[in-house]
Amino acid sequence: MKLSFVIPCYRSENTISAVIQEIRETIATRPSTEYEIVLVNDCSPDNVWQVIKKLAAEDTHIKGICLAKNFGQHSALMAGYGQATGDYIISLDDDGQTPASESFKLVDKIEEGYDVVYGYYRHSAQHLFRRFGSWVNKKMAEAIIGQPKTLHTTSFFIMRKFIADEIVRYPHPFAYISGLVFRATKSLGNVEVEHRHRIEGESGYTLTGLIRLWINGFTAFSVKPLRAATFIGILCALVGFGAGLFVIYKKLMFPEVPVGYTSMLATILFTGGMIMLLLGLIGEYIGRIYISINQSPQYVVRERTF
Asked: In terms of C-beta density within 10 A (0-12 exposed, 13-18 middle, 19 or more buried), how is residue 126 classed?
């Protein structure tokens, strides 16, 4: 059995060596296991690429990939999956939060017959903002891209090689790993692992980044937002029709009562706002089609160590 560890690296020049050492110590508990570590520098502003090159020069198990610009965590994972050769591919973070020491928990669980297994944190070490964001993401994923309600997704997970091969066939620039996994298999599992505090630093995801990630995933892998837009449009039309009937009735029954400008203005603003919102949603889909047709790259490799 061979394991491939794929780690996107961003602002982790002081943490990635500790993560690598933890992987080595974990593999040493099962000496018969072959392994490789694929480190993807997502155009980090620090010196993490120099650290990666040094690690790769000292250890033939390590492969380093340097991207030409920051394409985001999911595109960096795609770049790593394309170079992974193991029977199982394990994804984890570069900041020490995901417990590399518990990787064999994932291995043992996937060997029960699952295609993909996610580590599940009973007690999360994330800030309240990130926990709330994860909860919102889970609920939206359940409603829009078919995530099972009993499944908890995290950045620490393992997949079989054929799933990774299917994922890297996705050619478009809007990669969203969970969406690609859910459309490839329904054989998904969870196993409880520890969630630790970062060795140092803060999350690279801002509120804007999280919203962009959600929009990316849900518009790239589902048309349900468009269907919701249709229902909203129908609802607004019904509300407007009902309001019109009410105004006519009021004018016929009470001709002395003037039609209110306030209600008219509120109706116009509400309707106009909904139209702009729905046009923006449709525009998001059209923009993604345009970018995909232009074959915008998912990632560009500047340099590699192998």
From this structure: middle
